[in-house]
Specification:
about 110 residues
Length: about 110
């Protein structure tokens, strides 16, 4: 294990303890992403050495976990984009409803 991996673990733990954002969602999401990076570095630490015939199953397992950990940031980005789109859509609906109510009130006053 290298010094950078120790630093990564310390930074991830420090971030999870301090929780710098007001939003709990952002704190948890960043903690997951930092943990993901640390786990990826730990899993891929021994990939530079030669693979023996006995290590093939271990290498396949390590590769499967690596693929799973690589998907986490992509899912995070998709969830973030979907959340932003839903928030924008909700604001648009509220604005339209407000304008329609104002027009209806103006129409009632004319009558």
């Amino acid at each position: 294990v290298s010094i950078l991996q120790y630093v990564g673990v310390i930074v991830a733990l420090f971030h999870c303890i301090i929780q710098p954002y007001k939003s709990k969602f952002l704190n948890v999401a960043d903690g997951i992403l930092l943990g993901d990076i640390v786990f990826l570095s730990l899993l891929n630490e021994g990939t530079n050495r030669d693979i023996d015939a006995d290590d093939v199953n271990l290498t396949k397992l390590r590769l499967a976990f690596t693929y799973i950990l690589l998907v986490i940031p992509i899912g995070y980005i998709l969830i973030l984009v979907a959340t932003l789109c839903l928030c924008a859509f909700e604001k648009l609906i509220i604005t339209i409803q407000s304008e329609n109510k104002q027009q209806l009130d103006m129409h009632k006053r004319k009558i």
